[in-house]
Amino acid sequence: MKAFRKKCQHMFNPLHVFCRLRQAGFTMGVARNVCRLYERGLYRFIF
User: Fold this and answer.
1) Rounded to whole angstroms, how far apart are CA atoms 12 and 29?
2) DSSP letter string over 1-47?
3) In Å, how far are 5, 14, 30 from 35, measured between CA atoms?
4) CA distance 45 to 15
5) What is the pLDDT of residues 9-30, one digit of tens each?
6) Of 20, 12, 16, 2, which Cα lies nearest the Cα of 44?
7) CA-to-CA distance for 15 and 41, rounded, in angstroms?
8) Dihedral of the CA atoms 30, 31, 36, 39 (nearest 10)?
9) Average pLDDT, the chain
10) More confident residue, 5 or 46
């Protein structure tokens, strides 16, 4: 169970999400704004 939690924390880490958005072709500003909203609105409550 701990391994699953660590994997989820990595996959849903805002920096990881930012990198995946950049890789998908989003501009730096858009990816940063999406991650900022994601971190404040969702990630904080999950982990």
Assistant:
1) 19
2) -HHHHHHHHHHT-HHHHHHHHHHTT--HHHHHHHHHHHIIIIIHHH-
3) 20, 6, 9
4) 16
5) 999 999 999 999 999 999 999 9
6) 12
7) 15
8) 150
9) 94
10) 5
Structure tokens at 30: 């858009």
- Residue corresponding to tokens 């900022």: 36
Whole-angstrom distance, CA of residue 44 vs CA of residue 26: 23
- The whole-angstrom separation of Cα 3 and Cα 36 is 26
The domain spans of the chain are 2-46
At residue 10, what is the residue type?
Answer: H
